[in-house]
Amino acid sequence: MCGIESKPFRLSISPSLKRVDGGRFETVGGKFYIIGEFFSTNLNASVFCNDIEYKSFVENSTTISFDIIIPGPNDLLCNYSFDNGKNSSNFKIEYPLPFVEKTSTITTNGGILTIYGKNFYNVSSIIVEVDNQLLCKEIKFIDLTSLSCKLPPIEESEQSSVFNQKLLLNRTTQFSKKLLLNVTFDSKTWSGYIFQFSKDEIQNSNSEKSSNETKGGSKEKKKKGGVLSSKKKKDMKKNSINNNNNNNNNNNNNNNNNNNNNNNNNNNNNNNNNNNNNNDKVESTPETIV
């Protein structure tokens, strides 16, 4: 009724929570938000991750934020407490997957491979693998968007499978078939057909190999048909000396045979002379008359 004074009363406005938002966490961390209403600067709210407390910042009457600087890539389970523990629950921080945009090209002889992308993690366990068989070694984290490693050459036993099935030539400067690349940072992995071996450099390498084989064949032919080795020269000289000695011995034997023939002829002549003398004696002997 008008003019009648009402009884006093107290209006209590309490903060209320509507939702929580993990926001967008990057590789090095991110922000966590509590969304509600009737927030004040003296509102007690906190977040715990790995037993570490992260203090709140009241941005306005509807938003409280937390800076959680924890590098990935392993996801975390954290806990938030709001309004002196009246609201408390767990939430999960999920880190983004790595993404590879491009790589450098190298020959099948191996070399330094550089990988470019985003959401790379600076962790001790990084694995880079090409075609599920070539493991990159000496991996170096450059920054959040690039890393490098040393790719070994393709072994002879692996060339048939890689070359015959996957490295199909085209008119570009690279092989048309892209190979599978796996990049793993602890629990986060990116996989995609993005890596290519350089075609021109492989052709040059094969040309050099053919050239070397041709040179090697020419040297072998030259060695066989043209220039003689020192060992062969010595053997030929030794054989020549032996042949000369044999020829000299044969000549001496021939001379001895000739001398023997001459002696035989002389003996025959002497025998003939003796026979003639005997005949003369017979003719001159007088007959005996009885």
Automatic annotation (TrEMBL):
It is found in: Membrane. Transmembrane segments: none annotated. GO terms for cellular component: membrane. Residues 220-236 have a biased composition (Basic residues). Residues 210-219 have a biased composition (Basic and acidic residues). Residues 203-290 are annotated as: Disordered. Keywords: Glycoprotein, Membrane, Signal. It comes from the Eukaryota. Residues 242-279 have a biased composition (Low complexity). This is IPT/TIG domain-containing protein.
